[in-house]
Amino acid sequence: MAFGWIDEQAEARRRAGLVRALRPRPADSPLLDLASNDYLGLSRHPEVTEGAAAAARCWGGGSTGSRLVTGSTELHAELERALAAFCGFEAALVFSSGYAANLAAVTALGPHGSLIVSDAGNHASLIDGCRLARGETQVVSHADPEAVRKALGTRRGAAIVVSDTVFSVDGDRAPLAELAAACREYGAGLVVDDAHGLGVLGGGGRGAPYAAGLAGAGDVVATATLSKSLGSQGGVVLGPARVIEHLVNAARTFIFDTGLAPAAAGAALAALRLLEREPERAARAREVAAELHARLTAAGLEAVRPDAAVVSVRAPSPERAVRWAADCRSAGLAVGCFRPPSVPDGISRLRLTARADLSGAEIERAVRVIGETRP
């Protein structure tokens, strides 16, 4: 029977407690949201939604084609200039998603004959970029600059080191300055995914590379998503102008993909302008994360100290993690639930995302619900 193997895999997932399902949410959810990545609380901000609506009215519902045909508008160019200036890089290139941006950066900068050194805790999009790239990939232990040096020392020639800046599972930061130093010893480039750093870290939310003094360096490329702190959708690669020009000519997820919808570009640009005016939002997101961590640990829960806006709470098993998240939802609180294979260490977690717009009362309520529903 065609696709008969699917039934076997479905049964294996069921036995392991790893079945996933879509859960469409209403437009006006009653849940207190600590599950989304809307770190700055901008996805429903009136200026952001109006930015999306105005762009759709002006440019239409879709971009109409790939960026190299009809999918590049003046709005896309304005967004790219604004992102590059804000984050401190020479140039930027916008993609339809952060996933597409990561695939582009890794595959175009890891050609045949090159070495790609990848952190063991990297996001799936970076892992898939390594798999699709023609270069040879060496996976090294998590956040370990010495392991990176050892890998780079195994061969000569073109090489890149690939890492998240803030890892999505536990919210810990990569040692960017040390990674950059290791890269420079061997003439390698550093490619970092700042999906969870943009809008949260660095002066006014300019990102982890900016905070580490690496923004604008000729040997550093950063990717980011527009769907987290900026409350929109899409992705971006930031770096030297010659790298961006290379991506325009060599990155398949840029050349062959339809351009980002104008509404998403308009929303992201409006959010960026808002963040420029209100840089305190970045600091507030970090303050909320720190307060969540302090209250959770004071309640006797095992929570990982956050370096940005992600707070991870350990669960005893995948099944209990799923039950815990469901019980939180029943009590009016939406939280994330990470379990194998999404977590490389096999430890299941509740994943909480701090938002700059959370009140003290909402933080207290979230901690109370998590504590009362613990397994």
| Pattern of helices and strands | HEHHEHEHEHEHEHEEHHHHEEHEEH
Described by its quaternary structure, the protein is single chain
Query: What low-confidence regions span 5 or more consecutive residues with pLDDT below 50?
Result: none
Task: Evaluate the radius of gyration.
Answer: 21 Å
- Shape type: globular
- Terminal CA distance reads 41 Å
Q: What can be said about the biggest beta sheet?
A: 7 strands, mixed
Sequence of strands across the biggest β-sheet: 2-8-7-6-5-3-4
Instruction: Work out the helicity level.
Output: 40-55%
Look at the helices and sheets and give the structural class. alpha/beta
- E-strand count: 12
Mean pLDDT: 96
Count every helix, treating DSSP H or I runs of 4 or more residues as helices: 14
Q: Proportion of β residues?
A: 15-25%
What does this structure look like?
By secondary structure, this protein is an alpha/beta fold. Helix content is 43%, strand content 15%. It has helices spanning 4-16, 46-59, 74-87, 98-109, 124-132, 145-152, 176-186, 208-211, 241-250, 252-255, 262-277, 280-298, 318-330, 360-372, and strands at residues 32-34, 91-95, 115-119, 136-140, 159-164, 189-193, 220-225, 235-239, 303-304, 310-314, 333-338, 349-353. The strands form 2 sheets. Strands 2-8-7-6-5-3-4 form a 7-stranded mixed β-sheet, with helices on both faces. It has a 5-stranded mixed β-sheet with strand order 1-11-12-10-9. α8 (208-211) links the parallel β6 and β7 (220-225). α3 (74-87) packs parallel to α11, α4 (98-109) runs parallel beside α5 (124-132) and α6 (145-152) runs parallel beside α7. The radius of gyration is 21 Å and the shape is globular. The chain starts with a helix and ends with a helix. The model has no long low-confidence stretch (mean pLDDT 96).
